[in-house]
Design goal:
- Helix content is 43%, strand content 19%.
- It has helices at 37-41, 48-70, 89-106, 115-121, 166-176, 183-191, 216-229, 233-263, 278-290, 307-319, 339-342; strands at residues 2-7, 12-19, 27-35, 79-85, 110-114, 134-140, 143-151, 154-160, 267-271, 294-296.
- The strands form two sheets. It has a five-stranded mixed beta sheet with strand order 3-2-1-4-5, sandwiched between helices. Strands 8-7-6-9-10 form a five-stranded mixed beta sheet, sandwiched between helices.
- α8 (233-263) packs parallel to α9.
- The radius of gyration is 20 Å and the shape is globular.
- The protein starts with a strand and ends with a helix.
- 51% of the residues are buried.
- The mean pLDDT is 95.
Length: 344
């Protein structure tokens, strides 16, 4: 079963082909991704209307590129999948419209997929795929969640961010330091030359007794510290970046280990854009090794939003018998869609 997947939930257009034949390990046949970072940089953040228009420009050329790279004709695609939500409404509609139109032209079934389920399952395309059950730490730009995952479609929310997500904490803190958009990667790079112990920053909810997250207070503390530094900020920026990153990572690691203890499971899956952070991977690896927990990550090029995770999630849901492919090509999108509501 060859699945063609489209991802267009925010500022990256992703298209991919994944082979989910039989009960074997899914194979990524080809994928292509276009990031809109350069376009949005001038505005300091994503402009939804510009994002939607750029998805329209990119989606068909990327599809042609993916088909050519895999040497697979379009008629051999069995299922077309797209991100149904959550995300920017206009951006989601581009991917949904392209997928449904293509499926209708081919007479093939089409399927809407939850964006976070794509992230959660993306490590199954890695060289070291996980096995069920496991705890998942989802750390994408707008979401920070801990989930218990017993099988495809069975997701129990253990804890989530009650305000800013970890990715937002990275980006907003970076902006307060005057770093360019997108701030997270720039902050992480700057932190490499800084002293993580230079500033004592809060670890919100670290001892709350639950698995929820809160990063808004950390952002406020970074703002306060930046104002205190005043003209000295430039000289101390690397130290402030390192201290900020250390605070975020410390919370993520300790909450993840608490989730492992609470569930009694011995496998952890980390997914989402922040999952590419080098310090987070290093600290999680050390903590998991100490507690005899196996940790799995997506390949680095699949941490960001991409079409491969959407095609994979569709294929795995079909293999698990969670979807019944029916005719009809009408569609809608769900900009606000909980993962639990999409599970069964």
């Amino acid at each position: 079963m060859i699945v063609l997947g489209f991802e267009s939930s925010c500022d990256e257009t992703g298209v991919a082909l994944v082979d989910c034949s039989g009960l074997g390990v899914p194979r990524l046949l080809s994928h292509a991704l276009f990031s809109q970072i350069d376009m949005h940089q001038a505005y300091g953040g994503v402009v939804p209307e510009l994002a939607s228009r750029d998805h329209i420009r990119r989606v068909l050329p990327l599809t042609q590129q993916v088909l050519a790279a895999a040497a697979i004709p379009l008629k051999d695609v069995d299922v077309v999948a797209y991100t149904r939500g959550p995300g920017l409404a206009g951006a989601l509609l581009v991917g949904a419209g392209a997928a449904c139109a293509m499926a209708a032209a081919l007479g093939k079934p089409v399927m809407g997929v939850h964006h976070l389920e794509g992230h959660l399952l993306s490590p199954f395309l890695s060289a070291d795929p996980p096995v069920f059950p496991f705890v998942a730490l989802l750390v994408s730009g707008g979401h920070t969640q801990l989930m218990r995952v017993d099988r495809v479609g069975s997701y129990e929310l253990l804890g989530e961010s009650i305000d800013d997500a970890a990715g937002e904490a990275f980006d907003k803190s970076a902006k307060l330091m005057g770093l360019p958009y997108p701030g997270g990667p720039h902050l992480a790079k700057l932190a490499e030359g800084g002293d993580a112990a230079a500033f004592k920053l809060p670890r919100p909810l670290l001892h709350s007794g639950n698995l929820d997250f809160s990063f808004a207070g950390l952002k406020t503390a970074v703002l306060t510290q930046a104002k205190k530094l005043g003209h000295d900020l430039d000289a101390r920026k690397a130290d402030l970046a390192a201290s900020t990153q250390a605070a975020i990572v410390d919370v993520l690691v300790k909450k993840s280990m608490a989730a492992m203890l609470q569930t009694g499971l011995t496998r952890l899956v980390v997914a989402g854009g922040v999952g590419a952070n080098a310090l987070l991977r290093s600290e999680l690896n050390a903590a998991c090794a100490k507690r005899k927990v196996r940790v799995h990550y997506p390949e680095l090029h699949l941490c960001t939003d991409n079409g491969a995770m959407i095609a994979l999630a569709a294929g795995m849901r079909l293999q698990a018998g969670l979807e019944t492919l029916q005719g009809g090509y009408t569609f809608d999108v769900l900009p606000r869609w909980s993962l639990q509501a999409s599970s069964h």
